[in-house]
Design goal:
Distance between the termini: 32 Å
Number of strands: 21
Number of helices: 11
Radius of gyration: 22 Å
Strand content: 25-35%
Structural class: alpha+beta
Strand order of the largest sheet: 1-2-3-4-5-16-6
Bound molecules: coenzyme A
Largest sheet: 7 strands, mixed
Length: 403
């Protein structure tokens, strides 16, 4: 049996290849579902694996800009909707899909791919390294006191989709320039995905969109919903905070104060928060939010030289010897400096494989972390410390949504 991998040529093929991952979500996509998905992805960026006419697997890539350290961004493939039907597993379909997707991304000039992994064991072999961590919180209503009380001066308004689609994107753009790891969002993404309240995916009540204004200007926003519940006549409901974006310290203070003063709930839940979230310093009792850390996004540099040259650095330089079994064109020695990254014949300071470069890229991990975990080897004395001074960033990477 031969499996052929090629880009989808129609929305029907997109639907059929999406049904491979749909199988595991317990859902079957209609043509309408595929048409909605096609608002976010070019149809030919979904690769499908075919057995004859039957689509047996698929792997998609969103055309993103991904923010990287220094307020820059790179073209990146946002790997998504990866699945192979259970009747076709372990025959190399995923391997062929990943090869086709990464080659296609390279041809489009994208220097990296990144993804959220359903299972961490799948993607290392294709060169993806853990690049960020994220946290979830469950904060009881009675433990929301701030360490430093203040007098709020902003106003918060609930806005409809249309107003949110105008006012939220520029605020998101401000965070995009501050935080590595964010994905760019098209207007269609905002209107039909992030802000859109699809009743099919509701867990609890409708999606609310809250806009914070300071001096009459948009300053921050929140997307949340209420899941109400009762025990003995009192609320044991939850406010689910889907996304809270506050580009300035004042916006963070004002909007989180407003959100956490919500009446008639017993707890607040939020997921996918960055490791260095403001709440650790804002709250009087940060332990009470039960911050639980998990793995975040996984990054796969596709073009090592271009990817490393695209971000900012502090002082110094380091020579890396990089191994890359899946894309061997990346292998060899690379000198990384604030002025760019280029091949070199000089002796290397550190040896690591491409997954390690993915882990370092956004600033989510340090050379010291990789060396301690036997993911990088120091070839010259003090190389990890030197590399860490060069790659240092002052903010944790953050990707605020699972794609
Ligand atoms: C994960 C999945 C896409 C793999 O597809 P597949 O066609 O069976 O994969 P392949 O046959 O190409 O396997 C490639 C390699 O990955 C390994 N692999 C595949 N699935 C794996 C899994 N779930 N965990 C660990 N390793 C896995 C294979 O053993 C093989 O290893 P090798 O290169 O050392 O031989 C498929 O099993 C699936 O659809 N799973 C459920 C949905 C899912 O998890 N999707 C990922 C969403 S992020």
């Amino acid at each position: 049996m031969d499996i052929e991998v090629r880009p989808c040529a129609s929305v029907e093929e997109l639907r059929d290849s999406l049904n491979a991952i749909g199988h595991y979500f317990g859902q079957e996509n209609t043509l309408e579902d595929a048409e909605r998905f096609a608002k976010w992805i070019e149809v030919d960026r979904m690769h499908a694996a075919f057995d004859g006419d039957l689509a047996v697997g698929g792997a998609g890539a969103f055309s993103y800009r991904m923010s990287v350290p220094g307020g820059h961004s790179v073209g990146a493939a946002g790997t998504t909707a990866v699945g192979v039907l259970p009747t076709y597993r372990r025959r190399g379909a995923l391997r062929s899909l990943m090869r086709a997707q990464l080659e296609d991304a390279r041809a489009r000039g994208e220097v990296a791919a990144y993804l959220w992994a359903s299972e961490a064991t799948i993607y290392g072999r294709f060169g993806f390294g853990l690049a960020s961590r994220m946290g979830s919180i469950t904060l009881p209503r009675e433990r929301v006191r701030f360490a430093q009380p203040f007098e709020p001066r902003g106003t918060v308004r609930l806005v409809d989709l249309e107003e949110a689609a105008k006012t939220f994107p520029p605020l998101y753009e401000q965070i995009f320039a501050q935080r590595p790891g964010m994905n760019s969002r098209s207007q269609a993404w905002w209107e039909t995905r992030r802000l859109f309240d699809n009743p099919q995916f509701r867990q609890g009540g409708p999606k609310h969109r809250a806009l914070l204004e300071l001096d009459g200007e948009p300053a921050g926003y929140a997307i949340y919903n209420v899941k109400q519940d009762w025990a003995g006549g009192s609320t044991k409901g939850t406010v689910n905070l889907t996304e809270v974006m506050t580009p300035t310290p004042e916006a963070a203070r004002e909007l989180w104060r407003w959100l956490l003063d919500f009446d008639w709930t017993s707890e607040f839940r939020a997921d996918l928060l960055p490791l260095d979230h403001e709440l650790f310093q804002l709250l009087a009792e940060p332990r009470r939010m039960q911050y639980t850390i998990n793995d975040g996004v996984w990054v796969r540099p596709i073009d090592i030289g271009a990817a490393l040259s695209a971000r900012s650095y502090e002082d110094g330089e380091v020579v890396l010897e990089i191994e890359d079994a899946f894309l061997p064109e990346n292998e060899g020695r690379w000198r990384v400096t604030p002025d760019g990254t280029a091949r070199t014949a000089d002796a290397a300071d550190l040896r690591l494989d491409v997954t390690g470069v993915g882990s370092l890229y956004l600033g989510g991990f340090r050379f010291a972390d990789l060396v301690r975990a036997s993911r990088a080897i120091e070839l010259t004395d003090g190389a990890a410390a030197r590399g860490d001074r060069l790659f240092a960033t002052n903010i944790a990477p953050w990707c605020a949504e699972i794609f």
